[in-house]
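Record 1 of the preview.
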Amino acid sequence: MNRRGPVVVAVAFAVAALIAIFFFVLPKKSAVSKARAELAATQSKEQSLQLQLARLEEAKQEAPQTQQALNGLKVKIPPSADIPGLIRIIADVADETAMNLAQLSPGAATVDGSGKFAVIPLALNVEGDYFSLQQFLIKLESLPRAMKVTSMQISTGTPPFELSVALNVEVYTTDTDVSAPAG
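->
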């Protein structure tokens, strides 16, 4: 029996070692690999958040310029239609450029496809010489309100060298509840 004793002890130690490996080492190894996967995911998320933070810091630095651009846009595309003010601006431009404002008719406003702003059509007729017309169009283009000339018809006027111009213009507002102007 003396020979079996060391073999039985060796087998018992081997079994105990296998049990320890299965119950203690392998679960810990699995937990370590799971923790490594979580660490990798967390590091990836941290990199994403660092990139987002950098973009936000950049936006914060650009905020004054962005706000200034938005304020300029509010002037160009105001929050109200202000048809009387618009008529006054165009009449002043006609006076400054020696053009005779024969007619100015605002149409019914329509909301654009995005639903974010309304388009107010204007039909206007002006009369004057070529150079006055040129100045009128330049000043019309540089008005504080955003306008877009959609069509222009030029014909000769009554006195020589006089031109009669019919313009269709679009003016914009962020007031999407505008109604047709009172006639």
